[in-house]
Design a protein that fits this description.
Elements (H helix, E strand, L loop, with lengths): L1 H6 L3 E5 L24 H10 L6 E5 L5 H5 L13 H8 L1
Parallel strand pairs: 1-2
């Protein structure tokens, strides 16, 4: 999201249903201890918005549906933790 925002796309919507945990701070510059327990997408919006005020940064915290995805011109999926079974499935 950071690079898309710095590049100046029109808008970025962050989707995450998880909450910030202490370990998230080791790999994500937008979180602080005050964010622990908050939704990750909601906790990210303000700090990411500061990177480029010309980009609309918003969050989506409900389960993602096909209808919601259809509203976007593009999407990027990323996971914090990838299990070994997931890696095997991707590698096949």
């Amino acid at each position: 999201a950071k690079n898309l925002i710095l590049a100046g796309v029109k808008s970025v919507t962050l989707h995450d249903v998880g909450t910030v945990e202490l370990w998230d701070m080791s790999s994500n510059f937008v979180f602080s201890e005050n964010d622990v327990g908050k939704n990750r997408a909601l906790a990210s919006v303000a700090k990411l918005q500061e990177l480029n005020n010309a980009v609309v940064v918003q969050s989506l915290t409900s389960e993602l549906t096909k209808e919601q995805l259809a509203d976007f011109q593009g999407s990027v999926a990323a996971e914090n933790v990838v299990t070994s079974s997931r890696l095997v499935a991707v590698d096949i």
